[in-house]
Amino acid sequence: MKVLGIDPGSRRTGFGVIEVQGRETRALAFGVLLGTGDTLPARLVAIGTALDRVLDDHMPDLVSIEQAFHSNNARSTLVLGQVRGLALWLAARRGLPIHEFAPRSVKLSVTGQGGAGKPQVAAMVRRLLGLDRAPVADAADALAIALCCARRASLAGTAPRAARTARAADGATIDLSRTFAPVRRRAEAKALAGLAERLRRPR
Fold first, then answer.
1. Which of 19, 38, 138, 141 is catalytic?
2. pLDDT at position 77, please?
3. 199: helix, strand or coil
4. Do the Cβ atoms of 1 and 96 come closer than 8 Å?
5. Active site (annotated) includes residue 138
6. Could you please report the per-residue DSSP string of 67-105?
7. Is 188 a catalytic residue?
8. Rounded CA gap, 141 and 103, in Å?
9. 9-36 burial by CB neighbour count: b if 16+ within 10 A, else e?
10. Bridge-partner residues for 100, per DSSP?
């Protein structure tokens, strides 16, 4: 099971892809996507194009992203929201399950302390994933988000679960949960009996 973590930012968006197999969790790829350009639209194009490539290259099963938070700078909050919206759209159009986590929840899941600083998060990410060195802050945060998602979704230490959706020819996502649901034989027999009774009634 592959999980993509995203730490959104208009100039630097961190990403981290981890793979969970049984009790093992390893990092497949991580880094920072740069929002190059003099205007916000240009930076969004740069980040969107790079993130689209990450999704295509690694084909994650889940996408996790940091929740929006309110800062004292309203403009910064709005800009961050636009980057989050772009990332959510790129994942949603592929029919991928999306999980959002508050920054404090991510820190608590990875370090055991909701108020942990970035160096502490990076150090724990390095330890948990067995990396040679600690990733840069944005990439470390993205990996931490992915780890938090894996733990919350009970993926770590378990076998991958079967997908519950499929993609139709027109690109629409189809819910297959009913297909995999256990058959309720009593309810099925009752429904069939009711149908037979209606067919026997004179018209």
1. 138
2. 81
3. helix
4. no
5. yes
6. PP---S-HHHHHHHHHHHHHHHHHHHTTT--EEEE-HHH
7. no
8. 9
9. bbbbbbbbbbbbeeeebebebbbbbebe
10. 65
Determine the Cα–Cα distance for residues 152 and 182; give it in Å rounded to an integer: 25
Q: Is the confidence at residue 2, as pLDDT, over 90?
A: yes
Residue pair 153/62 in contact (Cβ under 8 Å)? The answer is yes
> Catalytic: which of 52, 66, 188, 197?
66
For the question of whether the overall pTM of this predicted structure is more than 0.70, the answer is yes
3-state secondary structure of 148: helix
Q: What type of residue is 42?
A: A
Q: Rounded to 10 degrees, what is the CA torsion of 136, 9, 28, 115?
A: 60
From the list 71, 47, 63, the residue with the least C-alpha distance to 100 is 63
pLDDT of residue 200: 66
Partners of 24 in the β-ladder = 21
Residue 176: per-residue pLDDT: 42
Rounded CA-CA distance 14/18 in Å is 13
- What's residue 181's pLDDT? 41
Find the radius of gyration of the CA atoms of the chain.
Answer: 22
Q: Please state, in angstroms and rounded to a whole number, the distance separating the CA atoms of residues 58 and 103.
A: 24
d(CA 43, CA 49): 10
